[in-house]
Amino acid sequence: MAAANHKIYDNFFLANEISDQFDTAIDLQNFFEVDNDLEGVPGMVKKINRYSATDSTQELDMGEGNTQSIEVTFQTFEYRVKLAQNQFDWYDEQEMTDPMIVQTGIRRMSSGMFNKVNADFMAELKKLTTVYTATEWDIDLFADAVGSINIEGTDNDPEKDIEAFAFLNPKDVAKIRKLAKETLQYNESFARQGYVGTLYGVNLYTKKDQTEGETEVAVRQAVKLFNKKGVVVEQDRNASPADVGNTRHNYMWSDKYYLVALVDDTKGARIIIDSTVVTPSVTLSDDTATIEAEATKTLTATVVPEGTAVVWTSSDDTVATVVGGVVTGVAAGTATITAKITVNDVEYTDTCAVTVTAAG
Length: 360
Fold this sequence. Notes:
With about 350 residues, the protein is of the alpha+beta class. The protein has two domains: about 1-50 and about 75-275, phage-related protein like fold (Alpha-Beta Complex); about 280-355, Immunoglobulin-like. It has five helices and 22 strands. The chain has helices at about 10-25, 90-95, 100-125, 140-150, 170-180; strands at about 35, 45-55, 70-80, 80-90, 130-135, 165-170, 195-200, 200-205, 215-220, 225, 230-235, 250-260, 270-275, 280-285, 290, 295-300, 300-305, 310-315, 320-325, 325-330, 335-345, 345-355. It has a six-stranded mixed beta sheet. Strands 1, 4, 10, 11 and 12 form a five-stranded mixed beta sheet that branches. Strand 19 and strand 20 (about 325-330) form a beta hairpin. The radius of gyration is 31 Å and the shape is elongated.
């Protein structure tokens, strides 16, 4: 029995086992790209450039040349190499009671690393700057999000088809299913863990740690894991000052170097459901009005959000003019007074039909 008290595990075996499990879990390569050539030590800065370019394609007549040129711009973001490390300790007596204790500990080391990388991945997705906000779930939001993602068409190369994905909180999954009904298609080829179905080309997945009322629609080119291949494993015995004498206390540490970065902001969009969000609008106090020439009528515009600037126009200034909501009759006839606001590059309007009669 004494010979079984302390079993020496080969570090190479342990490193391979932890790394294999880590890479298996990271087979989330359906969701982000992986670069296994990371170099450096924890804390070292790695600069990530996110690029964008303007279009310069012009339709030209004979003898004409381009007057525009492609302009490439980028923003530089600094990331630091991270160290994921965990510790597992056990006594010989525990292993003799149940040999699976060590194997379970090794698996937990791997899943712990994966969970850390996974959390960083989700945090990077939340940095996407294209955001669609609504007061409640609407399946068309997914169509809008997909439409905003910068992906090239792949109709002529189906093997390189780009899959969009979105993670949903379990509470939101039920809401989407009720809304989508037959629109939510299930595809056997995407039968992966957590897969809910496909909506407007977006593969939906249940993720219990996703924030309720939020999702990120993206393709795998949005985020990249920079990974230093392999895992370092160290072992020791009776390593703690409290381990006086041969207490048969075993220790194991594993560590891995990595960083996760949003590398292309154009490859995804966020959807945020917020019941407090108000829909922009402008409403005039009158739908119709009749005034005499040279007389005035004041129209009041109620706007949401409050304080939004209103632009007033008249369809015919020879009949009626408007300044700051005050309508002045000019000559007999009809004119349409329009109040317009612009919120997030979207225009909202309301109108009042004004009839001007000849002065008394």
